[in-house]
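Collaborator request, handled under Task 6.
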Amino acid sequence: MKGSCLCGTVHFEISDDFDHFYLCHCSWCRKDTGSAHAANLFTKASNLSWLAGRESVRDFRLEPTHHVRSFCVNCGSAVPNTSMGGDICIVPAGSLDEDLPLKPEAHLFTGSRANWDNELELIHRFEGFPPRPRNS
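Structure tokens returned to the collaborator:
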């Protein structure tokens, strides 16, 4: 499975299956993504190969926690993180360039869930931007 950052500087490949797929609602992941949750895939660090742009990847470590975010210095996109220690690689699901054949298996840290993150499947859906209002 291949992936990249938004600007195309960083490219990577995951050579084996993912062990887990979680949606994390902790306050740190919400800050990292600017969204309701992070969508993170877990695999072994040994399954990650950097194809291009490894020198453009930086880590932000939130001291004194274990929270680490890896990102492209050019565009800020989240990219795989192997800085957690051990043989763990966390891959942001949105960084993949291919369709993912998995569905998330669990929501994590739901006690920190955003208060507006409820019943989102019930709100309007548009395939692009919503229609512009008519000038009255």
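The cover message to the collaborator said: "The chain has one helix and nine strands. Residues 2-110 form a domain with the Metal Binding Protein, Guanine Nucleotide Exchange Factor; Chain A fold (CATH 2.170.150.70). Please let us know whether this matches your experimental observations."
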